[in-house]
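haha ok so turns out i had the wrong file open the whole time. this is the CORRECT one, sorry everyone. sequence first:
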Amino acid sequence: MIALTLAEVAEAVGAALPHAAEGTVTGVTLDSRTVGAGDLFVAVAGERVDGHDFLDAAAAAGAVAALTTRPGGPLPALVVDDAVVALGRLAAAVHARLAGGGLLTLGITGSSGKTSTKDLLGQVLAAAGPTVSPPGSFNNDIGLPLTVLSADEDTRYLVLEMGARGVGHIARLCAVARPDVGVVLNVGSAHLGEFGSADGIALAKGELVEALPESGTAVLNADDPRVAGMAPRTRARVVTTGRSEGADVRATGVTLDDAARARFTVAAAGEEHPVALQVVGEHQVSNALSAAAAALAAGMTPAAVAQALSAAQPRSRWRMEVTRRADGVTVVNDAYNANPESMRAALAALAGLPATRRVAVLGGMAELGPDADAEHERLGRDATASGVDLLVAVGPDAVGMVAGATAAGARHGEGHGTRVVSVPDRAAALDLLSEVLVPGDVVLVKASRSHGLEVVADRLLAEGGAGSGTPADGGAADGDRAGAGA
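then structure:
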C-alpha cells in the first residue's frame, strides 16, 4: 500500500480528523488478528462479529487508527456512516493516484471461473512486471477495495475479480477502480434465484464493459452468446476468445494429459504457440484464453503469454485442488462453490483422471431459485452419464441428484454402472467413504460454499496421509466477507 497520512485518509473517507491525531497509514485490515504496526483497522459490524469489539486488540497490535461507525475506543477514530462504503472511498482515492502514475487495471467477471482466470492472469502478468492479484475470491465491496489498497507505486498491473448479487453491483465496484481491460467469462446459473433470469445476470455482468474507457479493451467469450452480445455495450475495443471460428484469441488441438490438464495451441495476432496448462480440467482452456487476451491487451507478446500460461500454477484453495494420499487415494477438492455449469465441468475433469473408481461427493447448489429441483435432478443424470462409479449425495438439498441418477440408470446396491447413495450430512459421508475407498480411487468433493464440504476433503486427506500433489496455497482470514459475489 502507498503510505498515507491520517489527514489524507480522513479526507478520502469523508471523516473528521480527531484532534491532535497524526501518523502514517501503511496498511489496511478488517481482521484484528492480522493487524500490524501502521495499519488502519476497519471496524465492520457483521452478522456474527462486530469489529468494534476488537479495537483494543487492534491497538495492542500497533494499529495507528480505526475506521469506525461510532466514536470512542483506544485508537484515533475516523467516524463514518458506513465503514464498508468508506473503505471503497479510500480505495478509490488510492486507485486514482496510482492510475495517474501508469497503473494498468484489469477486471474479471463471470458466473464461474473468475478466481481461476484471475490466478492465471496474475501469474502471466507477473512475468512482465510487478502485479497485484491476491489468492482467493476477493470480489465484493470489501475484497475489491482491499485488493486495490495492497497495490503501491511499484505495481504495474492490478488484477481485480468482480462479483455481483444484483444489477448495479459491478458498476459500483468499477467506480472504486475503473478498469482499463474488462474480461467477461460467461453467463451461467450462479445466483439465478437472486437475478431472476440469465438475461438479468448478463445485464449485471455487462456493467464491466460499460465502465471501460474508449482507450480500453473488452475481452468477451465468443463461445457464450450472451457474453458475445455485450459488444455493443462498450466504447472500448472488443477482443473475442474461444474455440469458435473467427475468435481473435483461439484454442485449437485441445487434448488432455493423464492428469486431465489441457494442452492446446493458442492462436492470436497471427501467431500460434503451444500451451500446456498446469491446472486441472478442460474447462480451464476457456479461462486461459481469457487470461491470454487480457495479457495481450496489456502489451505482452503471444509467445510470452503462452510461456507464462504454461508455467502458471494453481493458487487459490478448494478449486480443483488435486492431492494424492499416501495410500493411493486421490482427493479433488473443488468445494469452494458450485453451480450447474461448474458442477458439470468438475465431473468432466473427474472423468479425465486415471482411476480405479471415480467417486463424486456432491452437495446442494444454492441460490438457483425455482429451477433448483430440476437442476439437481439434471445433475444426477449428468453424473451418471459422465461415468461416475459412486455418487454420494450429501444433505437434503442434494436428494434431487439421487432421483436424477436413478432415472438415468444408476443403482442403489451392487451391480454394474453408477451406484448412488444419499447421506444426511458430512459426518455420514465421511463414514461411508472410510469404508469404501481403496487405493486408486479418485474422489471429487464439491458443493455450494454454504454446505462446507471442504471439511470432508480435509478430513479425507488427514485420514489418508498427505502424498504428492500438494494443495495450492491461498485463503484469507476474511475470505468469506471479502468474496461473496457471483
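Residues 86-311 form a domain with the UDP-N-acetylmuramoyl-L-alanine:D-glutamate ligase fold (CATH 3.40.1190.10).
again sry for the mixup
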